[in-house]
Specification:
- Keywords: Transferase.
- Residues 2-175 form the DUF1972 domain.
- By secondary structure, the chain is α/β, with parallel strands linked by helices.
- The chain has helices at 18-32, 69-86, 102-107, 127-143, 152-158, 208-215, 236-244, 258-266, 282-289, 300-306, 316-326, 330-347, 350-366, and strands at residues 3-7, 36-43, 50-54, 57-63, 89-93, 111-114, 146-149, 167-169, 195-199, 223-227, 249-253, 271-273, 294-297, 311-313.
- The chain folds into 2 domains: 3-173 and 349-377, Glycogen Phosphorylase B (Rossmann fold), CATH 3.40.50.2000; 182-347, 3-Layer(aba) Sandwich (Rossmann fold), CATH 3.40.50.2000.
- The chain contains 13 helices and 14 strands.
- The strands form 2 sheets. The chain has an 8-stranded mixed sheet with strand order 3-4-2-1-5-6-7-8, sandwiched between helices. Strands 11-10-9-12-13-14 form a 6-stranded parallel sheet, with helices on both faces.
- Helix 6 (208-215) packs parallel to helix 7.
- The radius of gyration is 21 Å and the shape is globular.
- It starts with a strand and ends in a 29-residue tail after the last helix.
């Protein structure tokens, strides 16, 4: 039996972010293919390491005092020590504590690292934190047996550190949302087509302030839903976002039910995506899978993912103009929705993503990555062809 240990996320079931959702999706897929999968999970209640099984996946719960950065480092170290004793193939998600991967090298274990985005460029980090992340990116490139990039631009960036022979490009996938329960909108006072939505951490590089300010620049007779569990608090940036919001902007908090989030995307007039740093963002792919009309920040990462059928903005003024134009043009929005589905079908299906990972991990088990020596050509298999508008339930 092929055995895999997944480290680097908070744990599953996934209700925190992209890595958790991905870890859950890949684990469930691999278990169905006959793999034995272990996922390491943060445990804020327990006092000792414990184990349980969930949907055939072995969960190793590592006790940590809180969800702080220092506690996460402690969690990663404890997980690394435990996983090294298991002797399984390792899949590490992210490079934030890649220095610990030296332990796998000492133990002779194969470690595939998903290198995520260029984390050290994010504005939220202090100079020492950026230095730590920069160092660990370099160490991840050195210590990993093989690297996964989720975007061609990330692959190009990593290729300045290591040989392209060591890099495989596999974008994030998502489930197709072909139908959704409209009643899930009711608790939030929303109706289909009456709102736009943005789902992102409220950080400067995600342009939440610019989006909210642009939407609030005049009366829209519609809503903007800003999804996240960070409002309200005393963070200065978050307070700026709230201060810029008109009474047509709503902050429903964090929503982690997949069906509800899928419905919010599915019935939205526009999906706003302000991310400006990083590679293939899972939330953007999920919006495309829901057939959302995408209005995204104009950068090379988003343009590759969303494609030419989406619309883009560089700043607050451009975002406001796009709101003015798109909210009044149903025909253009319909074309954007079809373009999102087409781009999604071209290479962002969940099954295709999992198939690509399984192929790579099988090669890792035998220590042969030659099949993946041309990373720019590695793409998830195209999903089964289906007519636009066909109904398929969310996961």
């Amino acid at each position: 039996m092929n055995k895999l240990s997944i480290l680097g996320c908070r744990g599953i079931p996934g209700n925190h972010g992209g890595f958790e959702t991905f870890a859950e999706r890949l684990s469930r897929y691999l278990v169905k293919q006959g793999w034995a999968v272990t996922v390491y999970c943060e445990d804020y209640q327990g006092k000792e390491i414990s184990e349980e099984y969930w949907n055939g996946i072995r969960l190793v719960n590592i006790p940590v005092p809180s969800a702080t950065a220092s506690a996460t480092i402690l969690f990663d170290w404890k997980s690394t020590l435990h996983a090294a004793k298991e002797g399984n193939l390792i899949l590490t998600l992210g490079y934030n504590t890649a220095i610990f991967c030296s332990w796998y090298r000492l133990k002779g274990l194969t470690n595939v690292i998903n290198m995520d985005g260029i984390e050290w460029r994010r504005q939220k980090w202090s100079a020492p934190e950026k230095a730590w992340l920069y160092l660990n990116e370099r160490l991840g490139c050195l210590l990993g047996n093989h690297l996964v990039a989720d975007h061609p631009e990330i692959a190009d960036h990593l290729a300045t550190r290591v040989s392209r022979q060591k890099i495989t490009m596999i974008p994030y996938g998502a489930e197709r949302v072909g139908a959704a329960d409209v009643s899930l909108l009711t608790p939030y006072g929303l109706n289909p087509g009456s709102y736009s939505i943005v789902i992102a951490r409220p950080e400067p590089e995600n342009n939440i302030l610019e989006i909210v300010s642009a939407f609030s620049s005049r009366r829209r007779n519609a809503k903007l839903v800003v999804l996240g569990n960070y409002y309200p608090d005393k963070n200065n940036y978050h307070l700026q976002v709230q201060a810029a919001a008109s009474n047509e902007v709503i902050f429903p908090g964090g929503i982690y039910d997949a069906d509800t989030v899928g419905a919010l995307r599915y019935y939205a007039t526009l999906y706003l995506h302000g991310h400006s740093v990083g590679g293939t963002n899972p939330s953007l792919v999920e919006a495309m899978g829901a057939g959302a009309a995408v209005l995204a920040h104009d950068n090379r990462f988003n343009r590759w993912v969303a494609g030419p059928g989406a619309c883009y903005f560089k700043n607050e003024a451009e975002c406001a103009r796009e709101f003015d134009r798109l909210l009044d043009d149903a025909q253009v929005r319909h074309s954007m929705k079809l373009a999102s589905l087409q781009r999604f079908r071209e290479g962002f299906s969940a099954d295709g993503e999992c198939q690509a990972y399984e192929s790579l991990l099988k090669q890792a088990l035998i220590g042969n990555f030659s099949e993946f020596s041309q990373p720019q050509k590695i793409r998830p298999a195209q999903p089964e062809a289906a007519p636009v508008g066909s109904s398929r339930s969310h996961r």
